[in-house]
Design goal:
Blueprint (H helix, E strand, L loop, with lengths): L9 H8 L5 H4 L2 E2 L5 E4 L2 E4 L6 E9 L2 E10 L2 E12 L5 E2 L11 E2 L1 E4 L3 E3 L11 E3 L4 E3 L11 E3 L11 E2 L9 E4 L16 E4 L9 E3 L1 H10 L7 E5 L2
Parallel strand pairs: 4-18, 7-8, 10-11, 16-17
Antiparallel strand pairs: 1-6, 2-3, 4-5, 5-6, 9-18, 10-15, 12-13, 12-14, 15-16
Protein name: L,D-peptidoglycan transpeptidase YkuD (ErfK/YbiS/YcfS/YnhG family)
InterPro entries: LD_TPept_cat_dom, TAT_signal
GO molecular function: transferase activity
Length: about 240
């Protein structure tokens, strides 16, 4: 039986993720005052108040190194990471060039408006959270006013064809964080449903994924007051 990820202690979860081995990641990085910082050799566009960052650095093919960073006493420190991160089967692409259905992962820095998954909400998870239900979709109908939004089938306003029926991806979406790619003012045909979620069998269709134990750690660590962002690139 799969156990709820908050059942493990924080210490056990972080220990099982493993320590970073790259010197460039182990060395604390000074914070900058210009709203940007380089973490794992990638530029991160910080937002006002950001003190938590997840970096996804493609290493080869669809594999990536994913690390969780925290700003502590004015310096960025990597808390935990994995070398078994995944990106889309179509590789990386600039956000403005992305096309829906291409299997590409958009580069850049993105906020996390909310999280979702198949578990009841845990008190250890501080981000806004939605538990998936049978009628929940992520709208990718280009003719819908709800394009690139979470929407219940009972609320209507979209075609299910081409949209994501979230519970069909129950293992991968067991714990998920929404990235605000193409979110504030959605451009049709650019795609959406870009999440940070649990690894499946191989590449994603455009999301970033990590091993289950790391996603559990991320869910426990994220907090709204830290204004967390996710940076995707090829450093």
């Amino acid at each position: 039986m799969t156990t709820h990820p908050h059942d493990a202690s924080r210490r056990a979860v972080l220990a099982s993720v493993g320590a970073l081995t790259l010197t460039g990641l182990l060395r604390p990085v000074p914070a900058t005052a210009a709203g940007t910082v380089r973490l794992d050799n990638m530029p991160v566009a910080l937002r006002a108040g950001t003190t938590q960052v997840v970096t996804c650095n493609r290493t080869s093919g669809y594999k990536a190194r994913v690390a969780f960073w925290r700003l502590v006493d004015g310096r960025w420190r990597s808390e935990f990471s994995t070398t078994d991160g995944r990106i889309g089967y179509g590789g990386l692409v600039s956000p403005g060039s992305r096309r829906q259905g291409s299997g590409t992962t958009p580069m850049g820095t993105y906020g996390i408006p909310f999280t979702f998954g198949r578990w009841n909400h845990s008190t250890a998870w501080r981000m806004p959270y939605l538990k998936m239900a049978r009628g929940d979709y992520w709208v990718l109908d280009n003719d819908s006013r709800y394009y690139n939004r979470f929407r219940k089938l009972s609320s209507g306003g979209f075609r299910t064809a081409g949209s994501e029926h979230l519970v069909d991806f129950g293992d991968q979406y067991e714990m998920s964080a929404v990235l605000d790619f193409n979110y504030a003012s959605p451009v049709r045909h650019r795609g959406g449903a870009i999440f940070l979620h649990v690894n499946g069998r191989g590449a994603t269709a455009g999301c970033v994924s990590v091993p289950r134990v790391m996603m559990g750690a991320v869910m426990r660590e994220l907090q709204p007051a830290a204004v967390p962002v996710v940076t995707i690139g090829d450093g």
